[in-house]
Amino acid sequence: MQHELTLGEAADLLSRALPGHRVEILQGRLIVTPPPDGSHALSLTWLVVAFDRAGARQAGLRYVQGIGLWLPGLPDDYAIPDFSVVDEDFRDAHVQKNCYAPNVFRLVVEVTSSNWADDLGTKVESYAEAGVPVYIVVDRKHGEVLLYSDPADGKYPPPQRYERGASVPVPASVGVTLELPVDTLLDGD
Question: What is the pLDDT of residues 115-131, one digit of tens each?
Fold first, then answer.
């Protein structure tokens, strides 16, 4: 007897079959992202150091890589941001599948890779609908960083764009004061 897989079951199978890949369901679509390259990984490591130096833990925050954000769109939708700043008690907001409720996320960062269009389109819509206060896209394809903040009615206003040589100010709503150099975000060093 054959059983047709649900989208969630298919995502679970792919996660087990493709170690190191990130499997997400965005707006009812299954998305698979390859493992990060060296510059991508260095950017994320640098973010950990930057938020640590800015006193995020002392401010009652945690900074994490690769935890799931349960999305309100469709029943199986979830994303796995590259980097997130969350409330220190985020583990109390566990939903399922290593995903947490969107209300504990203060900031998410995506560093683009081969599926850059999802970071610049679907995820902008999904994170705004989830009410994520700050979304930063490190757009390596176009050599810039986009800062989305303060979603209203499920939409972000147009992003602030930052080019090489500039720094991205982390909005005060995140809970720490910090400027992120665009060059370091794009290159990892």
Answer: 788 888 899 999 999 99
